[in-house]
Every structure is written in C-alpha cells, then in structure tokens.
TrEMBL record:
It is a peripheral membrane protein. Pfam families: ABC_tran, oligo_HPY. One of its GO terms (molecular function) is ATP hydrolysis activity. It comes from Marinobacterium aestuarii. It is found in: Cell inner membrane. SUPFAM superfamilies: P-loop containing nucleoside triphosphate hydrolases. It catalyses: a dipeptide(out) + ATP + H2O = a dipeptide(in) + ADP + phosphate + H(+). Its main location: membrane. Its EC number is 7.4.2.9. This is ABC-type dipeptide transporter. Keywords: ATP-binding, Cell membrane, Membrane, Nucleotide-binding, Transport. Belongs to the ABC transporter superfamily.
Amino acid sequence: MALLEVNNLEVRFGLRSGEVTALRDINFSLERGERLGVVGESGAGKSVLGFSILNLLSKPGYIAGGEILFEGQNLAAMSPKQLRSIRGNRISMIFQDPMMTLNPVLTIGQQMVECLLAHRKISRADARRIAVQKLKQVQIPSPETRIDQYPHELSGGMRQRIVIAIGLLMDPDIIIADEPTTALDVTIQAEIMDLMLDLCERNSVALMLITHDLGIVSQMTRQAMVMYAGRIIEQGPTKEIINDAQHPYTQGLMNALPQMALPGQRLNQIRGSMPPLQHIPTGCAFNPRCDYVMDACRHELPGFTRSGGCRVACHMVAQMKLEEEAAARALEVN
C-alpha cells in the first residue's frame, strides 16, 4: 500500500455564475521517501492540488469526488478534528511566501514551540530544545539567538529555512512544498533546494514539489506530473519526461527553458495563455495553443495512452502509438 494514494480526485468552486471544476480525474500515488514533481503554468491547478490533500480549501472550493488515502485513511472524508492530528504532524506543507506563513508578532521560537506543544505532550523546555535542533538542521547560524527574533529581523533566505524547519518539526512522513523558492534569488534557491533534498534523503521523507520550473524538477525529483487546466496531461519518471517529452504542452515547457535558446536569441514561449476555469475549451484544453491540433482535439477529451514508462493524455500520441502498432503487425505478417 502506498503512503499516499489519490484516486479520481475532483475539486470544484461554486461561483455566482455557476460551479467550475478546478481539478478533475487526478490519480497518483506517493511512496515513503519518494520525490514527486508537479509542474505547470500558473492556473494549472498545482497549488489547489496541494491544498486539497490536506483539505485546506477555502470556500467556495470543495472536494466534489474521489479519495485521498493516507496510509489507507481517506483524508477527504475526515472531520476537522481528525485532520488536526495529521496536518503539520504527519503531513507538512511549505507555502510560497514565508512572510505570509510566519506570524509577524510572534518570535520564531514562540511559533515553533506552540506547534510542538499542540501535537506532543512535552515540556516547554523540551519543545524549545527540539526547535533549536531543527534550526541547526536547516543550517541557521546562531540558532540559540535566532529563535528569539521576529520574522522581519531575518533575510528572505533565512525565513524560508525557518519555514522548512517548522515543516520538519514533527518529523513528518510527507512534505508538500508549494513553490518554496519563488521569492528568492538564484543562489539562495539552489541552497534551499539542496537543503530540502538532503533532509528528505536523510529522514526518508516523501516530497511533493509544486513548481513551474522543469529545471528544478529534473534535479530534485524521480517522478513527475505535468498539469494543464486542472488535469494531469503527462505523468511518469522525471528523466523520461525531461529527455523525451511526449505531450506538446510538456515539449513547450521544455523549449521555454532559458538554456534551450542561443545567447542573444529570443526565448521560446508557448503562444497564448492558460484558459480561465469558466472557459476551458471543449475536448483537449490545450487545443487552442497546440501546433499539432487535430479535429478530435477540439471535440473529445483525450484519454491516457501508455508511452514508454509514461502516461500521456494526447490524441496525437494515441494516434502515433496506433500507427506504430499497425506497422509492427505489418512487419510480423511479412
């Protein structure tokens, strides 16, 4: 049994104009110690997926169907009281902006100690000792001093390390990291990513990394899911997706990486933009932006086709597989 298993997850938002579907047909599993990358542009549904796992969706959002099984227990069906024993304890989440995560009127120590006391029956002195230990783990200099400082007294990189330390406080089984380095410069980004990778490997923690950067995914994860308009469109081993992307959208993301353009050359980009939830096109949601669009793409939602070790939701890939199989049969007959 997988540590985390998501089956046919569907998330909707109720608006005045009617309900819209933010996630549909989401299926994946996460093993202990595994690292999964979730990739896509803004609006693809990556963060909604992260929030859904811990049922942190704000109204009017809600889980409309499917299961989120953690060690066989369905998180989607749990009461808020039952979820409190899992949130921040067995499953931690690292959010995009540390200044939005940390309470500006409490010291770092107060926030870490209160978190520990909420989940463990230990003394305040023991809680402080564990907090200092976790700050050391994330390479915070002079942790005994930093623990009594307020968030505004620390740099962006330091605050992000503290958010990671808070995520590790309860020795969780899973960390969901939602764009954990968005607000940081490139040098600090690399340090934070190396730190997270090292901590996950040493503690056998499963990592679900939500990002728009395929470069980070290639370095950090073993499995990857590419999302578009609330649906998974390509899923499989990270190396296979990076080296031989099948879906035209994944190919577009790969070609948009800065290293894919020559010095002085204009960067590649996917034409158009992600459709709003109220106006997702019929058929394949990517069809208005796709260079390989066929008639079926405009009318039929593509199912998944197995290509190597990956699952791909694309009519073109399905047709190519059929043609390859027909050619192979013809060779056998001859």
